[in-house]
């Protein structure tokens, strides 16, 4: 006989969320190798044994974060509308990626740290789900080029350049603010204007 599913209590949901939020802070600051269960437990306000009740290891916490992150990471590209105006579709993707850097900087750094380390935990996702989506959208961009709607450009490298130019503001946040004059400066409005101008000029036939 199949056992009934265990009911998750409000406290369990609260503690799980606290652990994942604390882990995101620790992993994004120290990377996977530099982070410890003790650091995560302290940041979550829990004892180490209590944390290990919810997640058996640092690897399990990291995997849970990355699983949730991949969906969030791919959503802006999925939203690129092949039926809409091509230039506006690309600019919309640029804006969504820039908003992600502004609103989810810790998630961006977590992803960057994983990639820098050789993607040992999400390699299959990159060569599977991510590649399939990028190839699909690259084919859409290629059709726009063939129809003369945007300038001729390598679709994959266009997507790579959007990643680089938007994620920079999250992954190198300290450098950006140091150059622009401190933490009180908001780089995003001007960054959006600059990137929209850049890609409009690049893609206009």
**Estimated share of beta-strand residues:** under 5%
Q: CATH H level of the largest domain: which superfamily? A: Tetracycline Repressor, domain 2
| The CATH class of the largest domain | Mainly Alpha
Number of strands: 0
Estimate the helix proportion, in percent.
over 70%
Coarse structural class: mainly alpha
N-end to C-end Cα span:
66 Å
State the order of secondary-structure elements, H for helix, E for strand.
Answer: HHHHHHHHHH
How many discrete structural domains?
A: 2
Which CATH-level-2 architecture of the largest domain? Orthogonal Bundle
Average per-residue pLDDT, rounded, comes to 92
CATH names the topology of the largest domain as Tetracycline Repressor, domain 2
What value does the Rg take, in angstroms?
20 Å
Instruction: Please mark out the parts with pLDDT under 50 across 5 or more consecutive residues, or reply none.
Output: 1-5
Quick recap of the structure?
This protein is mainly α and 205 residues long. The chain has ten helices and no strands. Helix content is 76%, strand content 0%.
Notes on the structure:
- By secondary structure, the protein is mainly alpha-helical.
- The chain folds into two domains: 8-56, Homeodomain-like (Arc Repressor Mutant, subunit A, Orthogonal Bundle), CATH 1.10.10; 66-203, Tetracycline Repressor, domain 2 (Orthogonal Bundle).
- The chain has helices at 10-34, 37-44, 48-54, 58-78, 86-103, 105-116, 123-146, 155-171, 173-180, 188-203.
- The longest helix has 25 residues, at 10-34.
- 22% of the residues are buried.
